[in-house]
Model the fold of this input.
Amino acid sequence: MRQLSHPRIEEMTLCGVLGALSDPMRLTIMGRLADGAEHGWGDFDVDVCPSTLSHHLKALRLAGLIDHRKEGTRCFVSLRPGVEGRFPGLLASILRFAPADDRAGHQPKAPSIEPA
Done:
């Protein structure tokens, strides 16, 4: 299975990260990933069609925020290790002020990522 490309950590830009996080749906996805675990597509309780979810995950991947892994016909995503080292405290600060995902009753929390 061909894996998708991810930018190198040093290629990540603040503008790219903030642009990716400027969408409420992407903030919801990042809030879900803040637990530090790997999640399958079915773990995202979002009210959008699969192609729209794919678009949002691609934007987060191209910004360097998530790891996207394919295994057979399934896809798994997680917060990318090293983001905290590149932009210390940024994700935790943004997620602290992001609105909770009321549909899932999920309150985003600070990511549990260790610096790279």
Q: What stands out?
A: The radius of gyration is 13 Å.
